Amino acid sequence: MTVKKVTFKSFGVDLLGNLYLPENFDESKRYKAIVGASPFPQVKEQVLATYGPEMAKRGFVFLGFDYLGMGDSPSLPGEFKQSRYMFRLLENTWDAVSYLGTLPYVEEILGLGICQGGSIISSAAVTDHRIKKIATVSGMMAADAFQWTDKNIVNQMIATANASTQKIYETGEPDFTAPFGLNDEQSKEEYVALSPFPEAGDSYDYYGRDGVKGPKTVANFTNLHIGDQAMQSLFSLCEHYADKIVQPTLVIYGTNASTAICSTAFIDKLTNDPTVLGLPEFGHVDFYYKPEAVKVSADAVAEFFNQ
């Protein structure tokens, strides 16, 4: 496997990515290419750096990249890093598809989204039929939290985000916050004691200060984000437009994960006869990095994309 550093234009700036190429890659041949969509709040060195090599080993070209304002990709002039806005993520994804379409060795473009990436790739595919098939893993396609959590909590999130938006506008300075209550300094014990999320320990094991892909391990990653995030992340097309998706769709999720409803609510609205792989033995975060879960999902994605 070879990893090639690449850039492509989106919103007039260069987004940075890694292009994973199969063993014995030959530019004169034609390959199926996958555009990867990452979980919130990740950068390309995290889940995409897990699935990139796995899909390359299975014969695919795989593009993992940093969205606008994330990781190694710049923010727009006058804006701030760590601003992950849903509609910009879709346009970044469309531009990633356009970039793959310029490569002479790409014969077909496919989409793979993990966690929030499931929402991104599903939403992007509604009107981008250059993406021929899509697959989601631990997908948060019901990104509208009103569907799966207490409305009072959501409205509190919105109120906090509204205040942050006003502060940013008035001061011209970023207002950083920890969207899930996890910062870059907490111990696991501190975070789990404070967190209301049932899988807080699993999340910490991945994202926390001492996690396998936390800020000490991934230099361009932080758990902090611009405080207006809730005004952006609650928007998603895919759960409302699921019946408009025409591409063959694979949905992989842990049936006992607290986020399972974000896959099942999406599945229920699909009209394209989706392929569904529900696995009770794996939790949401297991599919990010645990070898046994990644192997199952990568094998299933490869088989589906090769059909």
TrEMBL record:
SUPFAM superfamilies documented for this protein: alpha/beta-Hydrolases
Annotated keywords: Hydrolase
UniProt superkingdom: Bacteria
GO MF annotation: an example: hydrolase activity
Gene3D superfamilies: 1.10.10.800, alpha/beta hydrolase
InterPro entries in the cross-refs: AB_hydrolase_fold (IPR029058), Polyketide_trans_af380 (IPR051411)
Hydrolase recorded as keyword: yes
Name of the featured protein: Alpha/beta hydrolase
Organism per entry: Sessilibacter corallicola
